[in-house]
Every structure is written in structure tokens, then in C-alpha cells.
């Protein structure tokens, strides 16, 4: 497994065919960028998009943002060429769409290796079909290169013949299955997109729901939503202060040979300390990322 514990609060899609967006990505405060060759790119623009993405990533300038390239399904006329071109361009990860089996991930990995992908290049999987949901555990355990699952709720709603509702009840089972699979295999997982760019309230509610469900962050389609996602998925100042307080209190109790301690009326055990340590560590990584991108 590659390192999964990095900030992925805001994960912005940008069409690889849109040169302006690729340029703009160098200055946006998103934690990760998905440079897209799949659904955001029309068939007759696929080759241009591939060239533009490879050139933009090779040219650099994206700071410490995670650079992910979404390739086309390997069964399409473009998928295999996408991987050959992208594998050694300097991107951090390749994102495979509509993943439904371990075999699909392993086919990608073999192609990446044959195309000169460095060992640290990760694989991410789009989880967006009914079969993918039913095989989430198999997919999540399919490769040591796998770092993150990415929910594709638009394709999922279409294939389920369901509806986009504010409470997202029609997709909750699917979200839960993928979160279970990701965490069981030590992977990161980010939530699907909110399609209505004028619905700030609905977007904020879906961020809160995503965070409460356990997602690390949210995929986005427009830069104007980055700040809200960054805030929603970052530990609050209050959470950080509380975490530091219980880490210190538990450490003092441990020095006296005690396994538990009560802080402000709440029982604190080792499991709470582990969560607190993860939260404080993530807060530090968010600060480091911001500092690195400001350089
Ligand atoms: C939705 C958009 C087509 C809107 O674009 P536009 O009309 O250009 O928006 P604005 O005029 O408001 O843009 C303002 C400036 O921001 C830049 N911009 C806009 N979007 C992006 C972006 N995604 N990345 C980078 N920069 C962006 C514009 O260039 C303007 O800049 P400036 O020139 O300085 O004024 C557009 O937002 C867009 O294309 N979004 C991405 C759509 C996309 O990628 N869709 C596919 C992914 S979603 C998906 O497939 C999920 C999954 O598979 C599933 O099934 O659920
Ligand atoms: Mg999709």
C-alpha cells in the first residue's frame, strides 16, 4: 500500500482538454487535482487532452498538490495509450474509472510497470457501478499501489436508476460499502461530486454528511467550492485543542500506570488517543501542504 495519509479535503476535476484549467490548477488551493481524460473530454479531443496533460505535468509548477490523471477505461480505444503516455510523466497517481474487479486493477498495474511508471506512482479506483459496489472489498485489496477510492456518484445514480436527493439516501448503502472496504484495507476514500454549482447550502450539507460518514474529502467540479471543502474536511481549531488535551492527559495517566482517564467528564481510552493523534497529525500535514504551495 502506498502512503494514504495525506490531505485530500478538496479533489478538483479538470478536463485535460481545457488548457486554461490545467494552468489555473497550479495556483488553486485544492489538495489534489484530477486531470481528466475520461468523461469530461469529448472523443475527438482525447488525444489533445492526453498531450496537454503529459506536457503540463512534466512542466511542473503544481507545488505539493497531489496530481492524479484519470485515464479512459482500458477497453476503450484510448485507455491503454493514456496509461503509456501518463505512466512516466511525473503524476502521483493514475485513476481508473468504473472499476469492478481486482483483475481490472492488476491489468492497469501491469501496463503501468511496462510503461515505466515509478514504484511510488499510486493507483486510485473510481467506484461508480453496481458491480463495483458489490466487489468493493475485492477491489480495495487488489494492489499494494492502491492509495485511494474515489466515489463516482453520478454514474452510480444513473446505473442504479436512482435519484439525486439532498439526503443522498439512494446511495448511502453504496457509500457505506466503499467506506468499509477502504478502511478495511487501509485506503483513503473521497466522496462524489455535488452537481449543482448554484446550491451552496446543499454543497455544504453534503460535505458535512461526507465527513460524518468517514470520507477524507470530496471531489469537486469547480474551483469556487474548494474553500468550503477544505474547511469542512479539516480538523477545527476546537478539535485540535481537544485532541492535544486528551493526548496529554492520557500520557500523564499512563505514566501513573493507568489505562484510562476522565477529561472534562468524558472517559478517554487508548482508542480516543489514537483518533486524536491522527487528527493532530493531519492538521500538521495540512499546514505543511499550505506552506509548500505558498513557496
Ligand atoms: C462546469 C464547468 C464547465 C464550468 O466552467 P466555466 O464556465 O469556465 O466556469 P467559470 O466561468 O465559472 O470559471 C471561472 C474560472 O475558473 C476556471 N475553472 C472552472 N472550472 C475549473 C476546473 N474544474 N478546474 C480549473 N479551473 C476551472 C475557469 O477557467 C475560469 O478561469 P478564469 O479564466 O481565470 O476566469 C467547469 O467548471 C468544468 O469543466 N468543471 C469540471 C467538469 C468535470 O471535470 N467533469 C467530469 C468530472 S465529474 C465526474 O465525472 C464524476 C464521476 O465520474 C461520477 O460518475 O460521478
Ligand atoms: Mg463517472
From TrEMBL:
<feature type="binding site">
    <location>
        <position position="128"/>
    </location>
    <ligand>
        <name>Mg(2+)</name>
    </ligand>
</feature>
<dbReference type="GO" id="GO:0016829">
    <property type="term" value="F:lyase activity"/>
</dbReference>
<keyword id="KW-0460">Magnesium</keyword>
<keyword id="KW-0456">Lyase</keyword>
<feature type="domain" description="HpcH/HpaI aldolase/citrate lyase">
    <location>
        <begin position="9"/>
        <end position="223"/>
    </location>
</feature>
<dbReference type="InterPro" id="IPR015813">
    <property type="entry name" value="Pyrv/PenolPyrv_kinase-like_dom"/>
</dbReference>
<feature type="binding site">
    <location>
        <position position="128"/>
    </location>
    <ligand>
        <name>substrate</name>
    </ligand>
</feature>
<dbReference type="InterPro" id="IPR005000">
    <property type="entry name" value="Aldolase/citrate-lyase_domain"/>
</dbReference>
<keyword id="KW-0479">Metal-binding</keyword>
<feature type="binding site">
    <location>
        <position position="155"/>
    </location>
    <ligand>
        <name>Mg(2+)</name>
    </ligand>
</feature>
<comment type="similarity">
    <text>Belongs to the HpcH/HpaI aldolase family.</text>
</comment>
<dbReference type="InterPro" id="IPR040442">
    <property type="entry name" value="Pyrv_kinase-like_dom_sf"/>
</dbReference>
<feature type="binding site">
    <location>
        <position position="70"/>
    </location>
    <ligand>
        <name>substrate</name>
    </ligand>
</feature>
<dbReference type="InterPro" id="IPR011206">
    <property type="entry name" value="Citrate_lyase_beta/mcl1/mcl2"/>
</dbReference>
<dbReference type="Pfam" id="PF03328">
    <property type="entry name" value="HpcH_HpaI"/>
</dbReference>
<dbReference type="GO" id="GO:0000287">
    <property type="term" value="F:magnesium ion binding"/>
</dbReference>
<protein>
    <submittedName>
        <fullName>CoA ester lyase</fullName>
    </submittedName>
</protein>
<dbReference type="GO" id="GO:0006107">
    <property type="term" value="P:oxaloacetate metabolic process"/>
</dbReference>
Amino acid at each position: 500500500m502506498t502512503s494514504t495519509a495525506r490531505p485530500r479535503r478538496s479533489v478538483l476535476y479538470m478536463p485535460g482538454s481545457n488548457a486554461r484549467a490545467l494552468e489555473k490548477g497550479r495556483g488553486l488551493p485544492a489538495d489534489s487535482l484530477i486531470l481528466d481524460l475520461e468523461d469530461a473530454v469529448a472523443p475527438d479531443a482525447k488525444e489533445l487532452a492526453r498531450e496537454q496533460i503529459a506536457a503540463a505535468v512534466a512542466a511542473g509548477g503544481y507545488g505539493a498538490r497531489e496530481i492524479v490523471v484519470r485515464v479512459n477505461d482500458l477497453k476503450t480505444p484510448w485507455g491503454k495509450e493514456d496509461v503509456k503516455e501518463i505512466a512516466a510523466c511525473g503524476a502521483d497517481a493514475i485513476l481508473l474509472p468504473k472499476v469492478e474487479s481486482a483483475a481490472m486493477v492488476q491489468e492497469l498495474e501491469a501496463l503501468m510497470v511496462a510503461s515505466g511508471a515509478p514504484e511510488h506512482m499510486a493507483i486510485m479506483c473510481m467506484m461508480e457501478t453496481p458491480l463495483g459496489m458489490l466487489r468493493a472489498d475485492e477491489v480495495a485489496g487488489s494492489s499494494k499501489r492502491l492509495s485511494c477510492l474515489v466515489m463516482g456518484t453520478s454514474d452510480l445514480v444513473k446505473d442504479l436508476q436512482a435519484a439525486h436527493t439532498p439526503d443522498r439516501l439512494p446511495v448511502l448503502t453504496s457509500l457505506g460499502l466503499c467506506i468499509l472496504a477502504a478502511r478495511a484495507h487501509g485506503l483513503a476514500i473521497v466522496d462524489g461530486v455535488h452537481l449543482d454549482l448554484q446550491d451552496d447550502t446543499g454543497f455544504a450539507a453534503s460535505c458535512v454528511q461526507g465527513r460524518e460518514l468517514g470520507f477524507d474529502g470530496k471531489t469537486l467540479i469547480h474551483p469556487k467550492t474548494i474553500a468550503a471543502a477544505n474547511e469542512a474536511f479539516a480538523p477545527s481549531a476546537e478539535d485540535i485543542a481537544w485532541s492535544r488535551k486528551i493526548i496529554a492527559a492520557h500520557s500523564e495517566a499512563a505514566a501513573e500506570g493507568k489505562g484510562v482517564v476522565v477529561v472534562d467528564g468524558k472517559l478517554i481510552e487508548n482508542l480516543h488517543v489514537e483518533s486524536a493523534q491522527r487528527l493532530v497529525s493531519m492538521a500538521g500535514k495540512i499546514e505543511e501542504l499550505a506552506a509548500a504551495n505558498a513557496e
